[in-house]
TrEMBL record:
Protein name, entry field: ABC transporter substrate-binding protein
Keywords: Signal
The organism's taxonomic lineage, starting at the top: Bacteria, Bacillati, Actinomycetota, Actinomycetes, Kitasatosporales
InterPro entries xref list: SsuA/THI5
Domain SsuA/THI5-like: 53-261
Annotated signal peptide: 1-23
Cross-referenced Gene3D superfamilies: Periplasmic binding protein-like II (3.40.190.10)
Presence of the UniProt keyword Signal in the record: yes
Pfam families associated with the record: NMT1
Source organism (scientific name): Streptomyces chisholmiae
Length: 342
């Protein structure tokens, strides 16, 4: 089974522990220049909506206008965390505050500083099923892709908070890959699935299905905030040497996001973005664009208040046993405060 930030987080712990022992430990301190003399910033991520603003930067020249050249490294799902922790990329687009907390608890020193993707984790059931709330699924077979996945953790902490439900104890969990879960639901092998987009939408279309619970909606309604599914994340060692450069990256990221938002996410249907997102059909791609426009998938800002909310969310994970504890090195922060502190 693929291990991703939306999948299993065990690699974060293993690599963070191994990092000081490897010859790769000083890679992150090195400075790299592109052919044009601009500093090269290496982003890593999966082929989903989270890193798409990097492609927008490249296509529109936003990166070069801000004094750097963006390079995107598409990583295998089972190597996404290790690629970043070992310094093969400078900024990870597929990590989050929880994975940063786990890495720091195990001896790493990374920090998430800006949301890359709104939380799209959801529970999907068949459209004609009798289930109306997560409580109705107690004792039922529910598909997921790992107890340590960001999706399962986000759904679990939400269900525990609202209904006192522990999916590991209260549901009959069936494990598969994110991409395989929609078929499990459509075939009737499970009564519900925990998944993220675009696979939730795929399940809705294929089964046909409907959303029973959505993490972002729940947190917006209860806290006027929701935990990002993915965040721009950097190793503090690299940040200390490239603070102004990372600030330029954040500015460029926000401009790229604005380009997408101004099209109501219909930019997803244009090349090279459509090929990058690699959905099964144009209809699925259109559904993803419409979904992201409604959510919306990309945030416009990240403030001290957001950081406080995220830390409160991590504390809730600790209280519920989903996280060992909060590390001494803060796993999430506002970039300008990090740079000024250095």
């Amino acid at each position: 089974m693929a291990l991703t930030t939306r999948g299993a987080r065990l690699a974060a712990a293993a690599l963070a522990t191994a990092l000081p022992l490897t010859a790769c430990g000083d890679i992150g301190a090195q400075s790299t220049e592109a052919d044009g003399g601009l500093p090269l910033v290496r982003f890593s991520g999966l082929p989903d909506p989270a890193p798409l603003p990097v492609l927008v930067m490249q296509e529109l020249g936003i990166d070069e206008r801000h004094g750097f050249q963006a390079e995107f490294l598409e990583v295998d799902p089972d190597a996404s965390t290790s690629t970043f922790l070992l310094g093969e990329s400078d900024i990870a687009v597929d990590q989050d505050a929880t994975s940063s907390a786990i890495a720091n608890n195990e001896g790493g020193d990374v920090v998430s500083f800006y949301p890359a993707l709104t939380n799209t984790a959801a529970i999907v059931v068949a459209e004609d099923s009798p289930y109306q709330t997560p409580e109705d699924l107690v004792g039922k077979r529910v598909g997921h892709f790992g107890n340590d996945s960001g999706t399962t953790q986000a759904i679990s902490v939400s269900l525990n908070q609202e209904w006192g439900i522990d999916p590991v104890e209260d549901y009959d969990l069936v494990q598969s890959s994110p991409a395989a879960l929609p078929e499990l639901l459509a075939s009737g092998e499970v009564e519900a699935i925990f998944d993220y987009e675009p696979y939730g939408l795929r399940a809705v279309e294929q089964t046909p299905g409907r959303y029973l619970f959505q993490v972002a909606d729940y947190w917006q309604e209860t806290a006027d905030w929701s935990p990002p599914l993915a965040m721009l994340t950097v190793r503090r060692e690299w940040l200390a040497e490239h603070g102004e450069l990372v600030q330029a990256v954040q500015t460029a990221w926000r401009e790229a996001v604005q380009e997408v938002r101004e099209t109501d996410y219909q930019l997803f249907l244009e090349e090279p973005y459509a090929t990058f997102l690699d959905r099964e059909s144009e209809a699925e791609l259109q559904a993803l664009a419409d979904y992201c426009a409604q959510l919306p998938c990309y945030a416009e800002d990240w403030t001290t208040s957001d950081t406080d909310q995220q830390l409160a969310y991590l504390n809730l994970l600790v209280e519920q046993g989903g996280l060992e504890g909060l590390p001494d090195s803060a796993p999430v922060a506002v970039l300008d405060q990090l740079v000024s502190a250095d």
